[in-house]
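Q: Sequence in, structure out?
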Amino acid sequence: MRGRPPRPLNVATDDIPKLARVARNAALPWASVRMARVVLALVRGDRVQDVAERIQCDPATVWRIARAFEQRGMKGFGPMRERRRTSRPHEPEGGHATDLLPVVSSPEPCLTDG
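A: Exactly. Output:
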């Protein structure tokens, strides 16, 4: 066995059917479905490297998903997700986005050489 021994991922038994529903739900965002599939695979005892290869991502992503589930549980999945933005929206250099409106809504055609 290569690598470090797997760190167990503790999941409440009543969360497993919920995770299975999220993992099968095509109406949810792909990120939520992938997270549920990763958690279920780790609960089954699959190796991080094997899970990463199966879902075509980096092993660090699998670790991040597992740790996020430990912290947030089911609140991090699907429509139940309630994460706040960590930053405010980006503004163009030198001012607000509304300063660009006269340029964007200009009725003059764009002339090109050629």
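The chain has a mean pLDDT of 76.
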